[in-house]
Amino acid sequence: xxxxxxxxxxxxxxxxxxxxxxxxxxxxxxxxxxxxxxxxxxxxxxxxxxxxxxxxxxxxxxxxxxxxxxxxxxxxxxxxxx
Length: 82
Hints:
By secondary structure, this protein is mainly alpha-helical. It is 41% helix and 7% strand. It is built from 3 helices and 2 strands. A two-stranded antiparallel sheet has the order 1-2. Helix 1 packs across helix 3. The longest helix has 17 residues, at 58-74.
């Protein structure tokens, strides 16, 4: 498993930690901020840029939604989808 960069946003990292060990998370490919942060000091953001290896299954979407809702609740934030 790759080691996360040192300066990852704590809320985004909390979502990723919630997904660790979830079999459906293996379909998620991270890009954008996370990819750039591994190689260069890039701006911090709460965004998680991701896409699927294959079309996302309902179970994969549910796993991501659940992780995001739980982290939002932990941080007293509102989870919205667009």
